[in-house]
Design goal:
The chain is an alpha+beta fold. The chain is built from 6 helices and 8 strands; from the N terminus they run αααββαβαββαβββ. Strands 1, 2, 3, 4, 5, 6, 7 and 8 form an 8-stranded mixed β-sheet that branches. α2 (about 25-35) runs parallel beside α3.
């Protein structure tokens, strides 16, 4: 930044540092030529003054630094793309909105996964968290994914924890970042959903999986206390890694 300021000052006022004289117009001509065309080869233009040599040396260093910086950015971009492709390829569920979503299912008949267990299951791979539900399209994709896992449990339902909570004062459903959910699916029990019981803050989704297709069992939102035990967790991780 200091070099840039000095250089611009030189161009504006015609003053050059380091004892360089300003009695020639050729440095300005050469600097403009060098900046606009990248033509900093002075050999073909004949002898050069001290001003010209200094300017051309500066531009040569600047161009080398710019080229090195661009190469580093390109290399970083290629590596980032490779990492994102790996995340997509390794997604055990489905991709929606730049995130991978997948179900972690306890295949035992006994219900053994409370909210805190669900968070730990998702965090076990260090990049996942409990999932939010973002839209009706997203919700239907989740139901399809869950229904496709029906053979992995002897139970007639899969109830999975989400990252969402109910604001018991406003009645809104809040996502993990505190913003209000823009979509709420079917409610499993309107009586439980409307209760002001402070324990029923944590949102889960119930999917009955004993029908002929997932359309027969559209599932339903529910809310319960965090130590209640279900048999699954819905997890998500970002496809695009943070900077």
């Amino acid at each position: 930044m200091i070099v840039k300021v000095i250089f611009l000052t030189c161009l504006v006022f015609g003053k050059f540092p380091l004892g360089l004289s300003d009695d020639s117009s050729r440095p300005t001509e050469l600097s403009e030529k060098c900046m606009s065309h990248g033509d900093c080869d002075v050999a073909k233009d004949g002898p050069t003054s001290a001003n010209e040599t200094s300017l051309l040396s500066y531009f040569d260093r600047r161009l080398k630094l710019d080229n090195a910086f661009m190469e580093l950015k390109l290399e970083a971009g290629v590596q980032r793309m490779r990492d994102e492709m790996k995340r997509i390829a390794h997604c055990p569920g489905f991709v929606y909105g730049y995130n991978c979503f997948y179900l972690v299912l306890d295949s035992n008949a006994a219900l053994s996964v409370d909210y805190f267990d669900a968070k730990a299951l998702c965090r076990s791979d260090s990049i996942s968290n409990l999932a939010n539900i973002y839209s009706r399209t997203h919700y239907l994709k989740i139901l399809r994914h869950v229904f496709d896992r029906r053979d992995e449990t002897p139970l007639s339902f899969i109830n999975f924890w989400t990252a969402m909570k109910r604001d018991l004062l406003s009645g809104r459903v809040l996502m993990s970042d505190g913003t209000a959910a823009t979509y709420i699916g079917n409610v499993r029990s309107s009586l439980e959903w409307q209760t002001k019981d402070s324990r029923r803050e944590y949102v889960y989704v119930s999917v009955w999986v004993d029908g002929a297709s997932h359309d027969d069992n559209p599932g339903g939102y529910g809310n319960v206390w965090p130590t209640f035990q279900w048999n699954a967790a819905l997890c998500q991780y970002p496809i695009i890694a943070s900077e």
